[in-house]
């Protein structure tokens, strides 16, 4: 397995655990997280011993979302005031690889289970909606955060979440950027099961993975392929469209204000510019 600076991969028989391994930053997704994901899941896809993958987070939370400060260096276009065509073209070409970070789980032939405890915010929610099955602990919270910081969510959640919870709940989460708890997540089918705590969650995820792994791999993988085929057109077209929209609305004064307020630890004041 190729070394990753962000992900920790552990194999338990036919099950691979992919850990978000940046606990000191609540597993916020820095450039390494975005770059390494496709290679990690491609290698697990090609590993004949692995039949199921579980994704989880080290420390107190699953994922606090995008590392805003860390990503500025990788995407300086976000902070440019000059909104010229050349800038938009550069930004558009940078969005497509970020989408692949999330699509990697969907493209992997092996079923991927997300085991969520603590916070699952922004990019973390993007990640789990690209997984096949979502489980969580009682302390789990979910937030589609992008609108609150001046972004349109552009790496897949707006395409995948409606297929899981429906249009109404997706629009509520996208427009309000509010946090929902584990019981609401269960009620809207975002998660399949809620466990008492993280330990019980990880045991439950392993148990479900073991059940899946005991089935004929070719039948399980063929089932995933057929299910993906039924939605891939709408997801792929949606990803291309949102990349174009995203590159057109950023950078904005509101986005720069969100970054500035975050750095200054104050509430942002948005003007719609």
From TrEMBL:
PROSITE patterns: ENOYL_COA_HYDRATASE. It comes from the Bacteria. InterPro entries: ClpP/crotonase-like_dom_sf, Ech1-like, Enoyl-CoA_hyd/isom_CS, Enoyl-CoA_hydra/iso, Enoyl-CoA_hydra_C. CDD domains: crotonase-like. SUPFAM superfamilies: ClpP/crotonase. Belongs to the enoyl-CoA hydratase/isomerase family. This is Enoyl-CoA hydratase/isomerase.
């Amino acid at each position: 397995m190729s070394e990753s600076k962000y992900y920790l991969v552990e194999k338990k028989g036919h099950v691979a655990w992919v850990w978000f391994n940046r606990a000191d930053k609540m597993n916020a997704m820095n450039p390494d997280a975005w770059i390494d994901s496709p290679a990690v899941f491609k290698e697990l896809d090609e590993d004949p011993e692995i039949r199921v993958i579980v994704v989880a987070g080290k420390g107190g939370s699953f994922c606090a979302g995008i590392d805003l400060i860390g990503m500025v260096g990788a995407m300086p276009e976000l902070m440019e005031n000059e909104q010229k065509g050349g800038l938009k073209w550069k930004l558009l070409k940078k969005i497509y690889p970020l989408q692949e970070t999330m699509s990697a789980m969907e493209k992997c032939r092996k079923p991927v289970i997300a085991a969520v405890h603590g916070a699952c915010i922004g990019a973390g929610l993007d990640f789990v909606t690209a997984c096949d099955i979502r489980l969580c602990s009682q302390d789990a919270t979910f937030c589609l955060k992008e609108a609150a910081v001046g972004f349109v969510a552009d790496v897949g959640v707006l395409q995948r979440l409606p297929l899981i919870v429906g249009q109404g709940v997706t629009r509520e989460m996208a427009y309000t950027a509010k946090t929902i708890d584990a019981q609401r997540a269960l009620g809207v089918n975002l998660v399949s099961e809620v466990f008492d705590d993280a330990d019980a969650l990880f045991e439950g995820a392993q148990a479900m993975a073991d059940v899946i792994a005991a089935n004929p791999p070719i039948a399980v993988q063929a089932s995933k392929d057929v299910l993906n085929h039924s939605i891939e057109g709408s997801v792929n077209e949606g990803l291309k469209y949102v990349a174009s929209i995203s590159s057109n609305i950023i950078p904005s004064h509101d986005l720069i204000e969100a970054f500035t307020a975050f750095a200054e630890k104050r509430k942002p004041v948005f003007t719609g510019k």
